[in-house]
Amino acid sequence: MEITSLKLVNFRNYQSLTQTFSPKTNSLVGKNAQGKTNLLEAIFFASIGKSFRTSKDKELISWQAQEARIVLNAKNRFREKQIEIILQRNQKKVVKMDGINIRRIGDVLGEVPIVFFSPDELKLVKDSPEERRRFINIDLSQTNKKYFYLISRYEKILENRNKLLKSSQNKSVVLETIDIWNKALAKEGIKIAEERRRFVEEISPFASAANAYISKGEELKIEYSGIDVESEEEYVKKLEKNFEKDFKLGYTTFGPHRDDLDIYLNKVEVKSFGSQGQQRTAALSLKLAELEIIKNRLGEYPILILDDVFSELDEHRRKRLLKFTNRCQTFISTTDEQFCEGKIIKIKNGKAE
To answer: pTM for this structure?
Structure first.
């Protein structure tokens, strides 16, 4: 996969930009707050359908404008493709694929697969299970659109079940209809768990190999910590068993919405006992493993985006990481030209040179 060009109009601090790219490595260099991350955010937004910095699309529109536009052109082994997104302050965003309006943003996922890493991705290892579920969901959704809609259905059913749990203080009233939501939740939840378990089994050896390579041999191990049932019937029984607790709390306490990844380094939990350098390398290794997973599933490498990563790594890890960039088209942002590789694009005040 290769991004050939990007056009921005009133996106963040870019009033107008048209930029072409190298099929290999592209280095965005400039001082802080000039627009390097904004450009990478535009690529991410066009590829994933959402920002990695905000959940409010209107924040992406330049403050003096009413509309912003992203036009991303890309190609793979088979064809060229164009994704266009129009953001408007007073209307819903418009998404087009090859000039045709798309109703569901999920249809964009996987068209231009990407892997994104920045210093903030340390939260993948350190923060709540929600971050690790998000990591799995984005990766699986890029390689399997059915999974994206599976997650969407599950979340709607979960929302309805939780509303029912909160709707009445009369337990018998809730019990009259909760069985419907239990069965619906079990049907989708068991599928999500199966997909996630398969994903972890697939990505674990790649992440271990990447970590060992970058860190000079430290042993990384990843395990899926998810629901412990194997059928819809068992799932429903688990929900029924937890009913008293769920009713008291007002929300569902069992299901893949509470899944996690257990990450171990040298047989100890890296979240609690790893140094910051080890945690960063573990998070980076998971991201690099994504490259191989997507390659295996789609037949080609995704785009790799590294936002201000090199300043956080020692020289050994930088050199090792750069070898990974030879596998795919890569975008690197940095304030230091000594970290630049390939095509150098200088960014200053929302303009590229």
So the answer is: 0.92
